[in-house]
Sequence to fold (193 residues):
Amino acid sequence: MSFEPFTALTSQTVVLAKDNIDTDQIIPARFLTTTSREGLGRSAFYDWRYDDQGRARNSSTLNGVDPQTHKVLVAGANFGCGSSREHAPWALYDFGFRAVISSDIADIFTSNALKNGLLPVVVDAKTHQKLLQSPGAAVTIDLQTQTVRLPDGWQTVFEVEPFARRCLLDGVDPLGHLLNQTSAIEAFEDGRS
Fold:
């Protein structure tokens, strides 16, 4: 699979300050009936965005989000906990998010996100609090330098697994990375014959 390469992104943030947002809150189980990524953004945080009749909740921050200008989700601690459903990062990506920032992101969610074009960014507690208290703040996430910058000059670094970083920079998943190496693999195999 390929997606838009991630080098640097400047975007306003959407803040969901709640801790322990699990994958069932990100995309409820009743929407897991597809293996297609397209259209899952409509179901992202569905129960927070819509009432039992399917009417938009005016109180939901997510219903007023413009995906063109709000591509960074800042969430409370332990984001993406729960089941290992790959649909969660698919839904966030299809909704328009390119990155999630938190002080703690679940390991399985992190792995699934990195393979699907969504950058999980873990920051220190002080930076996390600053971002949680600044909804709509413009942040720059630079994957090449692995930094998060705010307009006031605040900057912090984050870690990302090197192979996953390479794939995001190239805009491919791990299989796409291997397929991009086809000619080198064939040349190696020909040399062994």
Notes: The chain has one domain: 8-192. The helical segments are 23-26, 46-49, 87-95, 107-114, 125-132, 162-170, 174-180, 182-192. The chain has eight helices and seven strands.
